[in-house]
Specification:
By secondary structure, the protein is an alpha/beta fold. It has one domain: TIM Barrel, CATH 3.20.20. The chain is about 40% helix and about 20% strand. It contains twelve helices and ten strands. The strands form two sheets. The chain has an eight-stranded parallel beta barrel, surrounded by five helices. It has a two-stranded antiparallel ribbon with strand order 3-4. Strand 5, helix 4 and strand 6 form a beta-alpha-beta unit. Helix 6 packs parallel to helix 7 and helix 11 runs parallel beside helix 12.
Length: about 325
């Protein structure tokens, strides 16, 4: 079932969903299953599975030349989605990114998902290339998520690459895209960012999932501005419970977000990361209850494939 169908079927009830990371190379899927199993108590109608592009290191060979060596790669977003669908009978939402793929490779991946009966997608620009001197750059034809949205929308109408006539096959993907309550870091201001977001919706995006935020007022203002800009698709807030003091530095740096003064003050009082986790859980519970009371269609939790904090939050909210 499509994400939008789940939202419509809920008839105003706030749904619970999660996002997980594929296991790192060398890890088994059983570890992932064990983390997800307790969360199934809260009946998530869909689970997002992220994609992470590889990182490259340079190693000097015996002949003096430099060799590119893949340093880190999380395998199998598509395979993980199929495994979760089979194990838990839950819809899955694979993430697809621009970087590192030609349009042809993207089309092949979309056909594979179509054949597997996976008809939800989250289309993202993806992380910036951390290895700009690698051969990855010329391989990537897409720079923006809107290009991915356009390709998928055309496939949904039966238009495929290198074919001038309409194909009998039409895909049926539900297209999700990202929204940024505090604006995307490349946008000069929120007004410009909303213009780009509306373009994705106009091209065929069916719903929006937001970047994490810790101040609900910023989400409510974002939704209001979206509606005034003519963006009328469902908007799902993304929530991330803090779990370490180090995240006070990392999250703003990595995701270009602000942390409220009250939250920072409470975390700075903590002596251990266990204490920080408790603060993070309480803050996320307060966020979730307020968002739920406001009639938000779904609360989407960034679990990082760890279930303990999300379980504690869900027990108080759902």
């Amino acid at each position: 079932m499509k994400v939008t169908e789940h939202l419509a079927k809920a008839n105003g009830k706030t749904l619970f969903s999660i996002e997980i990371l594929p296991p790192q190379k060398g890890k088994t899927i059983d570890d992932l299953f064990s983390a997800i199993e307790p969360l199934m108590e809260f009946k998530p109608p869909f689970i997002d599975v992220t994609y992470h592009r590889e990182e490259i290191m340079y190693k000097k060979r015996s002949d003096g030349l430099m060799e590119e060596v893949p340093l880190r790669k999380r395998p199998g977003t598509v395979g993980i989605c199929a495994a979760l669908k089979g194990r838990f009978n839950v819809d899955t939402v694979p993430h697809l990114v621009c970087g590192g793929f030609t349009p042809e490779e993207t089309e092949d991946a979309l056909f594979t998902l179509h054949y597997l009966g996976i008809n939800n997608l989250l289309l993202l620009q993806g992380d910036a290339d951390k290895n700009p001197k690698t051969s990855d750059a010329p391989k990537s034809s897409y720079k923006y998520a809107s290009d991915l949205v356009n390709q998928v929308s055309k496939m949904n109408k039966g238009h495929f690459l290198h074919e001038e006539t309409e194909n009998e096959l039409k895909t049926n993907f539900c297209i999700g895209v990202a929204g940024y309550p505090e604006k995307h870091f490349t946008a000069p201001n929120l007004k410009t960012d909303l213009k780009w977001l509306k373009n994705k919706v106009d091209l065929g995006a069916d719903y929006i999932v937001t970047q994490m935020f810790f101040d609900n007022q910023k989400f409510f203002e974002f939704v209001d501005k979206c509606r005034k800009a003519g963006i009328n698709v469902p908007i799902i807030p993304g929530i991330k419970p803090l779990d370490s003091k180090r995240q006070l530095e990392l999250l703003p740096k990595m995701f270009y977000i602000d942390l409220p003064d009250d939250l920072v003050d409470e975390v700075e009082k903590c002596k251990t990361d266990k204490d920080v986790k408790e603060v993070g859980i309480k803050w996320a519970i307060q966020q979730s209850l307020e968002l739920k009371k406001a009639g938000t269609p779904c609360l989407h939790y960034y679990t990082m494939s760890k279930s303990a904090s999300t379980i504690a939050i869900a027990k108080e909210v759902f």
